[in-house]
Amino acid sequence: FGRSDKVTDIGWYSYDRHVDSLHQLLNGLDLDDITLVVQDWGGPIGLRVAMEAEERIARLVILNTGIFRPGPGWPTPGFLAWRNFAVENPDLPVGTIVQGATTTNLSPAVIRGYEAPFPDAASKAGAAAFPLLVPLTEDDPGAKEMIGVADRLREWDKPTLVAFSDSDPIFSIRSGERMADRVPGALPFVPIEGASHFLQEDKGDVLAGEIVRFVVV
Asked: According to DSSP H, which parts of the chain are helical?
């Protein structure tokens, strides 16, 4: 959802369309030997693409994300509250949301940068659609595909770095450790201290150092 033109119909956005967009990018540029870095919704989208285009992916970096798998304990009350907020507030306060998910006190210029791609409510259709795309039951669109990705990750033996922050109210350190345990190719889990959900904003330099060491090794 950059500064480019966007589809403003919220119903146009789907899990499959996001996945297809990433496939088109990789295929259109004929990319290979990719280090794919995923965070938040990048997990369900990017990890599915990695499983479907395994020949293009050399290694994975998994940050503060998970695969939404309907079952006991899901959806959580916290997620339902966020989903209801998005439904009731399609003109999402993007800068406020980012600030609320970081430990860093973001400057007004940084806040404006996050808000810049969204000059009006219509331009936020894609962002507003994301919470609605999370499957709540096994019969919802995308549920079967996400369950398949979770199962295939248990067989992924290519090099994988899993790093989660220590202050994320959505994806805890424990969920990161479970992710690392689940993936056969994962290195020892890396905790990122002093960061919230958007760890790339809070501790970008620390995170970059971990990724560079991972890729060089």
From this structure: 15-28, 42, 48-52, 77-88, 94-100, 108-115, 125-133, 143-153, 173-182, 199-202, 204-216
40 is catalytic: yes
Catalytic, out of 30, 151, 166, 197: 197
DSSP conformation letters of 134-178: S-SSTTSTTHHHHHHHHHHHTT--S-EEEEEETT-SSS-HHHHHH
Of 118, 124, 123, 129, the residue nearest 45 (C-alpha): 129
Q: Active site residue: 30, 40, 91, 181, which one?
A: 40
Q: Once rounded to an integer, what is the mean pLDDT over residues 129-143?
A: 93
Of 32, 120, 168, 202, which is the active-site residue?
A: 168
Return the SS3 of 66: coil
pTM: 0.94
161-191 residue pLDDT tens: 999 999 998 899 999 999 999 999 999 999 9
Is residue 157 part of the annotated active site? The answer reads no
Is 168 assigned a catalytic role?
yes
The two three-digit tokens of residue 18, written as one number: 């996001």
Q: How far apart are CA 24 and CA 49, in angstroms?
A: 10
Q: In angstroms, rounded to a whole number, what is the distance separating the alpha carbons of residues 74 and 62?
A: 21
C-alpha–C-alpha distance, residues 43 and 67, integer Å:
7
- Residue 92's φ and ψ, nearest 5 degrees, are -60, 135
CB of 1 within 8 A of CB of 24? no
